[in-house]
Amino acid sequence: MKSEIQVRVLERSDAEEAARRQGVRAWWKDGTAIAVGIAVGTVVVHVATGARYGFDRDELMLLEDARHLAWGYVAYPPMTAFFGRVALELFGTSLVGFRFFAALVQAVALVLTGLMAKEMGAGAGPRWWRRWRVRRSVWGRAR
What we know:
The chain has 143 residues and is mainly alpha-helical. 76% of the residues lie in helices and 0% in strands. It has 2 domains: 1-26; 31-142, no CATH class. The longest helix is centred in the last third of the chain and has 25 residues, at 95-119.
């Protein structure tokens, strides 16, 4: 029984050694988990503070277009109204629910920006800077 446990431990360490030689790192060790954590935090903050102000006039227009779906609109593509319709069906006319998909898309943009920076060879410092700039630019436009 003891020899089986030792063999399993050795096999596991061999697999870890092979992965380390190939340069493969676990996603939670290379900064991706931190990017996902920041993105989840962004969604939580948006959902928690999304009801502080009423509907904007553009949101009211989107809400009306979501009730009457069409193949195209002057102001935005049809998928925007479709996501508005999904939010309307899921959450009703709740302001937080209506803004949920915008917060979700911002979180996805944050994670994708970090992954693209990592793919292009950026170190941890430049990756954090790019994520921060994307978060600030998207959040700044939403005000």
